[in-house]
Amino acid sequence: MRDLVINPRCLPSYKMLKTLSRLKLFSNIKDISQTYNVTGASIRQMTAKVTKKNCPLVAVCQLTSTSDKERNWSVCKHLIQKSKAQGAEMVFLPECFDYVGESRDQSLSMSEDLQGDLVTRYKDLAKSLKIWLSLGGMHQKGPGSDSKRVYNTHIVIDSEGVITGRYHKTHLFDVDIPGKVRLKETDFTIPGATIEPPVATAIGQLGIMTCYDVRFPEISTMLNQQGAQILTYPSAFTVPTGMAHWEVLLRSRAIENQCYVIAAAQTGRHNDKRASYGHAMVVDPWGSVIAQCSDGEGLCLAEIDLGYVQKVRQDMPVQAHRRPDLYQCLQPALDLMEERGDNYKFEEHLIPSSCVFYRSHLSIAFVNRKPVLPGHVLIAPIRCVERYSQLTLCEVSDLSHVSQVVSKVIQREYQGTASTIAIQDGPEAGQTVKHVHLHVLPRKTGDFEKDDDIYDKLEKHDSNDVESKWRTTEGMAIEAGNLRKLFNH
Fold this sequence. Notes:
24% strand; 24 strands; nine-stranded mixed beta sheet
């Protein structure tokens, strides 16, 4: 297979020329100039201009998975190694990279959990090659209560072999086109219950979705509002729907969100019952297809220029033109009080899940290491952002909503008659942790000599010369556990 096919309907954007230059595919300038009605001199001039920056390279893979898991692993391993040799920092594999079963029973019997042999192999490979991986959809064993179905799980693994992102496919493909295709995912797949926030990767903030999700623009809009710079749709599109809709859907999501879109794909015939469309591709924020796989298994390469994302958004500030007064900001479903076992970054600090008592999709509420008053807690966005002005509209809305919910419960639990909700936005305002956060304190008559003394206390409470000592993680976990119960009723 050839590494790159240019879509002749697309104009030669800077990004396309940049990728071609990086891949050293300018051996025939005349052919390119004739195709796009530009001169070789202008191509060289534009290429020289855009290749000054050092942008990360991604590899997007195209597979024909079968029921032979070892064969599929061997192909994927080879493509990942080839991608690394060509300079890629992150490799994207499609949905069903692990296998495509020939029957429901076979698919169930071959499924694994995230601690299984297959994921372990990919984690070890990522670590040994020092490369990031997007594993676009594996058959993850379902819980004991639903053992006859699986999760379709998209995993992101960092260059140290650690899973940093995990998403269960939410929109399931149930289609029956007489004489053409019948596929009902709900028969064997458990739908996901949450939309995961963007994952911070080596190439930028990555919004992770899977295949059929591309038909639902709400999810990509939500991820964009949460800070996504890149959207990814690993897929196994059917041939009829792929021919009609694949490219136009991907380009639409790129244009409306002003993001890169990366779509690894299955291609060809997997067995007697199933075939996939292929055409794995990368689309830039202007909607141009800058890389695309041809027929068969293989990969294509593209550079991700976050400066270009920023420029497109500055030149056409679509998000700033939204009308929340006419339609509400999209809000993800809450994932409230369940302790997930994760650690959360609070600038350079780590907040254990045991110390978190409330979690929305974008924010966490956690107990304080050195409270000014009993019940003094903190609320912060999950995404690490230094200043309040850097939050997205959805993050601001979510942070406000969580503070309202938490302050009501905290005030009641600690017999307060009022609440102080404060934000220290910048060093001059007393901010010591470079991760924007809210202080929530239950107040009552006489807790300070003067009511406004609270602000002086907040400014000084983190300093080491204050008499109060840091609390232990164990003690904080006990308090968080008690508070968590209050939100479960």
